[in-house]
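Retro notes, structure queue

What went well: the backlog is down to a handful. What didn't: a couple of records were mislabeled last round, so from now on we paste the full input next to the output in the thread. Example, using Trk system potassium uptake protein from Vibrio hepatarius:
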Amino acid sequence: MQFRSIIRIVGLLLALFSVSMLAPALVALIYRDGAGVAFVTTFFVLLFCGALCWFPNRRFKHELKARDGFLIVVLFWTVLGSAGSIPFLLSDNPNVSVTDAFFESFSALTTTGATVIVGLDDLPKAILFYRQFLQWFGGMGIIVLAVAILPVLGIGGMQLYRAEIPGPVKDSKMTPRIAETAKALWYIYLSLTIACAMAFWFAGMTPFDAIGHSFSTIAIGGFSTHDASMGYFDSYAINLITVVFLLISACNFSLHFAAFASGGVHPKYYWKDPEFRAFLFIQLLLFVVCFVMLLNHHSYDTYYDAFDQALFQTVSISTTAGFTTTGFSEWPLFLPVLLLFSSFIGGCAGSTGGGMKVIRILLLTLQGVRELKRLVHPRAVYTIKVGGTALPQRVVDAVWGFFSAYALVFVVCMLGLIATGIDELSAFSAVAATLNNLGPGLGEVALHFGDINDKAKWVLIVSMLFGRLEVFTLLILLTPTFWRS
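Corresponding output:
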């Protein structure tokens, strides 16, 4: 294990993260809201800490192995999540505890979108911008960003890329070099963010709200600059724009790259992908069920309102964004629980969405169908094919391993919450909302997480990290085998 090289890299990345504090400081200067001191102070603190880690180890530039990559990714998310809490602690408004500051920071960086802060409409613009910006920063993965713009790392970046990018198959690259791949990802990410911000602005948002909500939409984060979330704007056009960009962001970004690589949009690249087709089918099925149920129970005055709310909430919750326009937790019968369960599926692999990813659910379904066929024809040989390609058994086994680990982490976190005194429904939904990087839950956490106890919040912070790092990246550090040389 190259510990000094790892410390050097973390120091460099921490120094890079310190620069991000200048953006909300500039917002504070523009709006004169008095919150700039916290961000300027944080900038110098993080820059000093980064230099302190980098300078003594600046000459250690060894090639990293896979184990080093996993450790860097976990260290980086925990260090950045902790560093991101400093502006909340230094600010007078909001006045939050240490636990709440850490919770808000980790929730933003992991794009969970669960908040402990109420009264967003009265917060300084700089704080609101920082929350949105932190989500955008974490959406695509700060490690990929660092590999793209920090060639001074002096390492082969594929180890970091494999540890960071979600999905069961991580060896495929869009371009031959990992730095080029990371740059391609960020060009797409940035272009989508600009397009989303412009669309929000034309639909009636202020420039500040348009930029802030484009950050959290493309990152599939769910933070808003208003307590009422997207319901504040009460606009069919804004709801539709949000739905469109959430669906785009929940797709595999390598599909976007393939579709636009030749200079024009080629829908065939999307339709050829079995995960994309399964994703669209799930979205359509959820929408139809919710729309029909809302009509039958006369939940809204007009068909158009029911259509708008059903479409927005199904896409928002199932893609793990967590934006709300209405209290979906108050919808009739099983609909709130259905939407909560849909977040376990989440977006496609290689997207900014959370959950277990559509491709894994697709593989689990195909595996289940194969076992049913084997019961009927025990001697027959069946292969699992995705997109016409037979998958090796290793991939299928890995998906089952991920599913079992995901379930184990969920159960342990839920029992931990119940042990702190939270009721069963709130505990179940809180873990589902954080492990799937969703945001809103049911029961006590339907609106925000500010009322639950501090011990529960720390359990949920761990749950966010497990969800953001797709369980195995964090779980592997807890095994004795990982630390053996």
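Agreed that this is the format going forward. Reviewer comment attached to the example: The longest helix spans residues 393-419.
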